[in-house]
Amino acid sequence: MAVSSAETTLESLDVTATAPLDYIDIIETVISSLADADSAQVSHTGSGTIWKFRYGQLEVFVQLTGSSEDDLFTVWSKVFPLSTPADASLLHRLLTLNWAETLEARFALYDDHVTMVASRTVADLSAGEISRAITLVASIAATYVDGLPA
């Protein structure tokens, strides 16, 4: 997924703690606390707002399709590429981790990569849930960026 030429760094946006919080303000505040220096970008597209930032070796994406109850808030990061077609052993380990260790996030297969993702509708979405989802995806993906331990 490419971020459009309309991207800007978060530092150029006026995000202050005294402004009334909305989803965009909350997302940008969380990203600014996690992102590597000068790595955060934002793009406004027909499918909502998409942020991209570096977290160590990873690129983390956050998408907000809108603010109605049926819109989606999604966070994802490619963790590691599949070097061969996924075998039953790898899928078994990923599903076991999904059950026991990833909390609201989950492993998925996307674009020939094992990807960490969290997604939910915007209905009753709180600032704490936004922060937790972004932090979970980034930190769990970073844990497994070099692959699953043997």
From TrEMBL:
This is YbjN domain-containing protein.
